[in-house]
């Protein structure tokens, strides 16, 4: 959407708004803090392309509910610490990832 990486990082730092997801979704570039509700079914959260998000962009996903799983998947052709996806199984499990411009890294 034409937003620079610096602007996205500024928004991340200054806008601590959490977005709730109760079904599988592909994140928009501005969605940075995700409260994942898997109470009804297991869900998949797909990260934006690491090159589109640009270097330094961060996303936090926290599993808010017991039962089921939250799978965090990278957009096709990109990885998360060398894997296509990772899974949050426990309530309150959380992962933060950062783009290096070519892939997502767990930090």
Could you characterize the architecture of this molecule?
The protein is mainly beta and 107 residues long. It contains two helices and nine strands. The strands form two sheets. A five-stranded mixed beta sheet has the order 1-3-5-8-9. The model has no long low-confidence stretch (mean pLDDT 90).
Task: Briefly characterize the structure.
With 107 residues, this protein is mostly beta strands. It has helices at 5-14, 50-53; strands spanning 19-21, 25-26, 33-36, 43-46, 58-63, 70-73, 85-88, 94-99, 104-106.
Instruction: Give the averaged pLDDT, no decimals.
Output: 90
**Weakly predicted, low-confidence segments:** none
Number of helices: 2
Quote the beta fraction: 25-35%
Describe the sheet with the most strands: 5 strands, mixed
Query: Structural class of the helix and strand makeup?
Result: mainly beta
- How does the overall form come out from the CA principal axes? globular
| Proportion of helical residues | 10-25%
**Could you state the order of secondary-structure elements as H and E?**
HEEEEHEEEEE
Our measurement of the CA-to-CA distance between the termini, rounded to an integer number of angstroms, reads 26 Å
Number of strands: 9
Oligomer: single chain
């Amino acid at each position: 959407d034409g937003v620079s990486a610096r602007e996205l990082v500024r928004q991340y730092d200054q806008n601590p708004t959490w977005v709730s997801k109760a079904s599988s979704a592909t994140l928009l570039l501005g969605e940075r803090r995700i409260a994942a509700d898997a109470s009804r079914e297991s869900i998949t959260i797909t990260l934006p392309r690491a090159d589109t998000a640009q270097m330094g962009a961060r996303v936090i996903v926290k599993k808010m509910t017991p039962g089921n799983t939250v799978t965090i998947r990278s957009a096709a052709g990109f990885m998360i610490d060398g894997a296509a996806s990772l899974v949050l199984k426990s309530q309150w499990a959380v992962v933060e990832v950062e783009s290096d411009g070519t892939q997502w890294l767990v930090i």
